[in-house]
Amino acid sequence: MQLSVVIPTYNEAENLPKLVSALFSLPIQGLHILVVDDNSPDGTGQAADALAESHPGRLSVLHRPRKMGLGTAYIQGFQKELKDGAEAVCQMDADFSHPPELVLDLVHTLQLCDLAMGSRYVPGGSVDNTWPFWRKGLSAFGNFYARLILGLPVRDATGGFRVWRREALLGMPLEQVRSNGYAFQVEMTYIACKLGYRMMEVPFYFADRKWGQSKMSFRIQREAAIRVWQLLFEYRALNPKPRQIDLNG
Length: 249
Ligand SMILES: Nc1nc2c(ncn2[C@@H]2O[C@H](COP(=O)(O)OP(=O)(O)OP(=O)(O)O)[C@@H](O)[C@H]2O)c(=O)[nH]1
Ligand SMILES: [Mg+2]
Description:
By secondary structure, the protein is α/β, with parallel strands linked by helices. 38% of the residues lie in helices and 16% in strands. The protein has 8 helices and 9 strands. The chain starts with a strand and ends in a 15-residue tail after the last helix. A 7-stranded mixed sheet has the order 3-2-1-4-7-5-8, sandwiched between helices. Strands 6-9 form a two-stranded parallel ribbon. Bound molecules: guanosine-5'-triphosphate and magnesium ion.
């Protein structure tokens, strides 16, 4: 299975080269990496270009002019990799919160489902034990809230470590997805659920970022909380009929 890993980056110059070498040392033949960098002030874009040179044909970089958000970075990255023929597409953070070796388990799990999800909230999974009480509470509550309102059948709807089947991504109305921050993961999960996709969760330990500044805030969480209600309305008519997207259009 031709696997592409899409990694959005904003100020990840310390993390990216280490993550890339960890991914390329996995026993996955033909693994391709796409870095989507938003003109990071710390030079992540140049670091990514250097990696593309040292791994010709195996790593490419999508440069965007400014910080445009996680959601559009993933959508553009997914569309590019699908166009280039990826059979499975992995999404993951650059900051080692998502353990690279779990990609193997996710790919194996994908044989049984359409979307394999890294999960902090199934038995065996957890979040960083140095997180302060309020951040643990917010994360757990955010998941409970989204699951309750949208009726999601998964425990971790806000996680960003996932592997999609090509056909599953092709069946998503990607051009319609508008959430750009934390709600992006919830929106994708909700659409997948409405389309009747089979989703499976694989437990993992979410470690805090090793390098760089955390961007988590109450404001970001509040935006996501409002967005959940919009999603409920926006996708009310979506049903499990497969649809085709013309990628050349
Ligand atoms: N291209 C792009 N990548 C982004 C943007 N915002 C975040 N990212 C990347 O998306 C991934 C997840 O973002 P994080 O900042 O780690 O989010 P988080 O884990 O919830 O929060 P902290 O790690 O505590 O800051 C990382 O690889 C970031 O570099 C953005 O606007 N554009
Ligand atoms: Mg992070």
